[in-house]
Known about the structure:
- Keywords: DNA-binding, Transcription, Transcription regulation.
- It contains ten helices and no strands.
Amino acid sequence: MAAIGSTRTAQGGPTLTARGAATRARIIEAAADLVFQQGVSATTLDDVMAASGTSKSQLYHYFADKDALTNAVVVRETERVLDAQDHLLRDANSLAGLRAWAAAIVEFHRERRGVGGCPIGSLAGELSDSSEDARLLLQAGFAMWEDRIRAVLDAMHGTGELRADAVTADLAAAILTALQGGLLLTQTTHLTRHLELGLQMALEHVALECNTGHRHKKARQSGQ
């Protein structure tokens, strides 16, 4: 997936100057903020030009049409969401680490009362049936998210916490499914109950896939 900060144009043209790259990034950021607030369909290119302080000729220099800009927003929002979780998932190599990651997500959305939900999930709901290019980008974004969760589970394999026959791909898919469903319901209800319960149940399933001796050791340590 191409980084939004790339210095090449969306059409694969020549390398941009630093000023050109900054202008392109500013357009994408303005569009992403508008899309987050009001959705893709309600966001016009005129809105983006006004919010980014750019002219029509500038916008069309970097993006052939609204679809091209929307695709750039999808990539940017994916980067934003995954970057925000990187430090938690990167340092999580255990069930306790996964639980800390889940707790941080729940707390973040509790503070916001679920407003906005998951930016990637919201884009998927709006674009997956209407734009194949956007759908493929969103699919790739979810796959990257799932891979990062799976990396934690693979690390648990390596330490012996997770049983050797546990299928980390399936566990990662279940966790991401619980997360996305919970975020949708949190956005709808403005309560984190469904998100918290969904993640708790998904991680309890992971706990059942842990080696018994390892679970007992963790239980003894937590009781000290």
